[in-house]
Specification:
Order of helices and strands: HHEHEHHEEHEHEEHE
CATH superfamily: Vaccinia Virus protein VP39
Number of domains: 1
Bound molecules: S-adenosylmethionine
Mean pLDDT: 96
Number of strands: 8
Shape: globular
Strand order of the largest sheet: 3-2-1-4-5-8-6-7
Length: 209
């Protein structure tokens, strides 16, 4: 059967830019048995739904409600999904800083990609033992380093659309290049990450309490 057309915004922002990151979510989902994910600040980045059966998206962008109601969306995800279950797609058009109508402690994975300090606002929705996948573009991985509820379990490296999960020698990651103290306040003021001696594309932290 031919693959249905992708919804326009997804095509424009992710397929055409070769930035779908499907392998990122596939490798995390397979390695850590992820069935349910929360993606605050997702915009229309629906790639997690190709490999994770239940995903809830949250975004304030004015284009997102129409996108998530688009009748092309369900057949498109159905055509690309790699799991047996029927896909579950949730969407909340709101700030992730406001209460999200989802059960606390119910998600296996919290996705934080280029969208601010999701770890502090949304870790309560992650189950204990669940994972935060954060990059440091806006400083969220550094924020998680300061949070004793999280422990680093892996670094994720990227070459184009190829991703690798590193679970050994993690000490080499998240070592600041400059010996400057950073705090939650200074990270919020900067709104971007710290320079590390060996940067990774993203990091996986486990919620331990
Ligand atoms: C740079 S885009 C990143 C999109 C996607 N995460 C990705 O990796 O391609 C940032 C998105 O975060 C959303 N965003 C920023 N702050 C937000 C907030 N407080 N609540 C909900 N969405 C937010 C913006 O509307 C925008 O769609």
């Amino acid at each position: 059967m031919p693959i249905p057309d992708p919804p326009n915004l997804y095509k424009r922002f992710f397929i055409d830019k070769q930035d779908e990151r499907v392998e990122l979510f596939r490798k995390v989902a397979v390695r850590f048995d992820v069935k349910r994910a929360l993606y605050p600040g997702s915009f229309v980045h629906i790639s997690p739904s190709f490999v994770i059966p239940s995903v809830v998206y949250v975004d304030t962008d004015r284009r997102t409600p129409k996108f998530f109601q688009d009748e092309l969306l369900a057949p498109y995800i159905e055509s690309r999904k790699e799991y047996a279950e029927a896909p579950e797609i949730g969407f909340h058009h709101q700030s992730y800083d406001d209460p999200i109508d989802e059960p606390l402690g119910s998600f296996d994975l919290l996705i934080s990609q280029y969208a601010g300090f999701i770890s502090t606002a949304c870790s309560k929705y992650l189950r204990i033992g669940g994972l935060l996948l954060a990059n440091d573009s806006h400083g969220d991985a550094s924020m998680a380093v300061l949070d004793s509820d999280f422990e680093l379990v892996a670094a994720v490296t990227r070459r184009g659309e190829r991703f690798s999960i590193k679970e050994t020698d993690l000490d080499q990651y998240l070592q600041p290049a400059n010996p400057v103290e950073f705090t939650q306040e200074s990270l919020r003021d900067r709104g971007r990450g710290i320079r590390y001696t060996k940067p990774a594309f993203a990091y996986l932290f486990r919620r331990i309490r």
